[in-house]
């Protein structure tokens, strides 16, 4: 594994697993949220974001975590391994809610500077509806751009532990 892409709902554990895989395989880790967001939760915009992503995926080795479906066409063809964190929505929502409460006002390591954790009901709705709105799009993108890659679909914390302990 030299180019690993992690996708899935917020709260599924993408960033945590990305750090673990980066450490295990000595690969640089990129959290796309750090690229997309500017201080004060201002979006960078696709016209500036895509070239940054293209530059990262052109490299020989990487772990990238984040959805940003408008760049799947850049990332999936270059990935040798795609990990789909497909945990239950109640688990993801609970983690996002807990993170908002326990980290409120602090900036996480996988988030852009100037974007402190906040209580955002709109984001909670996004997480709750993620599977319904994204599963088909993910499957289509995998068919279109990821057939060559090793695709790993993790559906539980136990599956994540088995995956990590088996590599």
What does it look like?
The structure is a single chain. The protein is of the alpha/beta class and 167 residues long. The protein has helices at residues 14-25, 32-36, 46-57, 72-75, 89-102, 121-145, 157-165; strands at 3-8, 29-31, 37-38, 42-43, 62-65, 81-85, 150-154. A 5-stranded parallel β-sheet has the order 2-5-1-6-7. Strands 3-4 form a two-stranded antiparallel ribbon. It is globular, with a radius of gyration of 15 Å. The termini are close together.
Order of the strands making up the biggest sheet: 2-5-1-6-7
> What share of the residues lie within helices?
40-55%
Uncertain runs = none
The separation of the N and C termini measures 10 Å
In terms of DSSP E residues, the strand content is: 15-25%
Q: Average pLDDT across residues?
A: 96
> What about the largest sheet?
5 strands, parallel
Number of strands: 7
Instruction: Give the ordered list of helices and strands.
Output: EHEHEEHEHEHHEH
Shape: globular
- Structural class, by secondary structure, is alpha/beta
Instruction: Supply the number of helical segments.
Output: 7
The Cα radius of gyration reads: 15 Å
């Amino acid at each position: 594994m030299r180019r690993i892409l992690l996708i899935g709902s917020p709260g599924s554990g993408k960033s945590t697993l990305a750090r673990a895989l980066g450490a295990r395989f000595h690969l640089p880790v990129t959290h796309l949220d750090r690229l997309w967001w500017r201080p004060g939760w201002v979006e960078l915009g696709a016209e500036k974001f895509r070239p940054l992503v293209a530059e990262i995926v052109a490299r020989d080795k990487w772990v990238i975590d984040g959805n940003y479906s408008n760049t799947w066409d850049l990332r999936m063809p270059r990935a040798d391994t795609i990990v789909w964190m497909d945990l239950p929505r109640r688990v993801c929502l609970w983690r996002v809610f807990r993170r908002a409460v326990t980290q409120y006002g602090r900036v996480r390591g996988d988030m852009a500077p100037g974007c402190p954790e906040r209580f955002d009901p709109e984001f909670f709705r996004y997480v709750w509806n993620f599977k319904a709105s994204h599963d088909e799009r993910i499957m289509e993108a995998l068919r279109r751009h990821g057939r060559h890659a090793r695709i790993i679909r993790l559906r539980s914390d136990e599956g994540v532990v088995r995956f990590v302990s088996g590599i």
